[in-house]
Amino acid sequence: MPGETILVVEDEPSVARGLEYGLKAEGFIVLVAGSGAQAIDLARGGPRKAAPHLMLLDIRLPDMSGFDVCRVLREEGRALPILMVTARDEEVDKVLGLELGADDYIVKPFSFRELLSRVHAALRRAYGDLASTSGAERLSFGDVAVDLQRMRVERGGHPVMLTPTEYRLLRHFVTHAEQVFSRDSLLEIVWGYDSSVDSQRTVDVHVRHLREKLEQDPAAPRWLLTVRGTGYVFTQKPE
Ligand code: CA
Predict the structure, then answer these.
(1) Assigned domain for 239 exists
(2) Residue 122 C-alpha to ligand 1 middle, in angstroms?
């Protein structure tokens, strides 16, 4: 999607320059931040500067961690897709384990081609064809209402903040009620790429987040059920 703005948050100048060069060559507008504070400032946008469409966020920054940057922006209600760049596998556990609201992650060292495919997939999830395809405009279950035209979710009449990926996953479930989906197929449909063992945990984490935001008792879900050995199903059948 050329013309979209990507914010590269990276304190290593040579890495930042390489990413900037590569992404510009693909037609993106690129902003670079070398610190967490600068990243937050640029992500907020303002009267004279447009907010970026996606953030590539290095975890190790001089002033604060990428985890904190992500948390601050999500707490402010900013829903831009965030792709965490991790240096080591141990950090992946942290990305997946924390309630950060990151959409995806990539482990250093990565190929530019791999990064680009993650960027495109995240942009598609966030800004791609999100309009209703089921014919329904509004669906509800329990005290949750999903407005498929306006892409809004309410619970008990109050807005629920979902990240673009969480929304896309929820939309897929509610428009395909009673159908069981494997983690592999969810990755392909919702994330837009082929599965790997590690990425399957990404599905589990996002399902957990949806349950925490939408279920009365996230530990004993009523709507978004695990099908042992298979995957997940959204059900509206009476208990
Ligand atoms: Ca760094």
Answers:
(1) no
(2) 22
Task: State in Å: Cα 105 to ligand 1 middle.
Answer: 15
What predicted TM-score, i.e. pTM, was given to this entire model?
Answer: 0.64
Give the distance (Å) from ligand 1 centre to CA of residue 9. 9
What is the Å distance from ligand 1's center to 10 Cα?
A: 6
Question: In angstroms, what is the span from residue 107 Cα to ligand 1's centroid?
Answer: 13
* Measured distance CA(39)–CA(42) in Å, rounded: 5
Q: Is residue 153 part of a domain?
A: yes
CA of 118 to the centre of ligand 1 (A): 19
How does residue 121 score in pLDDT terms, banded at 50, 70 and 90? confident
Put residue 146 in one of left, alpha, beta given phi > 0 → left and psi -120 to 50 → alpha. beta
Identify whether residues 43 and 111 lie together within a single domain: yes
pLDDT in tens, 53-108: 899 999 999 999 999 999 899 888 888 889 988 887 667 767 765 667 777 888 88
Helix (H, G, I), strand (E, B) or coil at 204: helix
> Domain check: are 10 and 105 in the same one?
yes
Distance CA 138, CA 104 (A): 28
Asked if 57 and 69 count as a contact pair (C-beta separation under 8 A), the reply is: yes
Ligand 1 mean position, distance from CA 38 (Å)? 14
Cα(135) to centroid of ligand 1, in Å? 46
Residues 171, 101 within the same domain: no
Take residue 2 and report the two structure tokens written for it: 């050329």
Residue 11 C-alpha to ligand 1 middle, in angstroms? 5
Q: Is 193 found in the same domain as 120?
A: no
